[in-house]
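Limitations
The structure tokens in this dataset are predictions for the assembled complex, not deposited experimental models. Users should treat interface geometry with appropriate caution, especially where small molecules or nucleic acid strands are included. An illustrative entry is reproduced here so readers can see what is and is not provided.
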Amino acid sequence: MIPSDHFTRFYNEVFKFLEKQGEEDLENYWLEISKNQEKHTLKLFKEKGLAGMYEYWDHIRIEENCDLDLKLEPNKLELKMNVCPSLSKVQDNDAEPMKRYCDHCAGWIGPIIDKVGYHLVYDVIDRKKPQCVLKIFKDKEESLKEEKNAKLLMGWPGKEL
Amino acid sequence: MNNTLSEKTLRYNDKGNVHMDFHGATNTTIEFIIKKYGVNIMNDIFKKVGNNVYADIKKHIQSGNIEMLAKHWKHFFDREGADYSISIEKDEIILTVKRCTAYEHVKKLVGAVSPNFCDQTIKTNEAIAEGTPYEITTEILGEASCKQIIRKRL
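Predicted assembly:
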């Protein structure tokens, strides 16, 4: 068994293989992971909207030992990841980290947020630092305005930058 | 039987909560990679995990210290609440997993577990031992149950 604690280091090896195959291969994998994650999120997000998203990431905050702040507003959810355990483990690793490791997160979250009709702005800030800011808006115009403030804006399958 | 382990620290010594849903993502990954690229590619990735991610355990085994593998097994099977027993001797460790909670969790999540799910154990174990005086064999005893043995190569 690869322990669940070590999943991200396994994930990192999968990303390195797929990156060598090409961008489309990597994106197809993110979409597969996204489909897998729908089991945990889609019903909740559809039924409860931003409050459901808050519920999901609050659960993740505890279960994945994340140092993150969540702020729920009537028209926006903001997730500020202070220390990402996923990238932290990949960097604390005897195997080499994939340089674009952070991209997978928007890669699976983006398609789900699109599917439920909300608007994601994903700022990775710096791929070498285990921190990021994710904002989900009800209103598309608000999200487009926010994109301009991002330091390192992420796209995903279905949203090319 | 001697189940006392030395105080040497594991390279990856995780604490805190356990996110069992990652096993579901492992199952999805195994199915995706095998369907698109074939089982040999999947096994190559597990080999990289064994050789590179677990380079520290490999180094210990290479130098004759197989205790570190027992420590690794105990630490993570305890964290995941598996039902197992372990017998530790100087040159042989036998881990018997009576109930693998990773397998059971995936079954609960998706119903049908990939027939290649346990390859993560078999192939990663083989790679950890590759090039060392020891071999690690993994025998599947039934659903969610296996026996993993590290012993000196003949």
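Some entries come with short summary sentences. For this one: Chain B touches chain A through 41 residues (CB under 8 Å).
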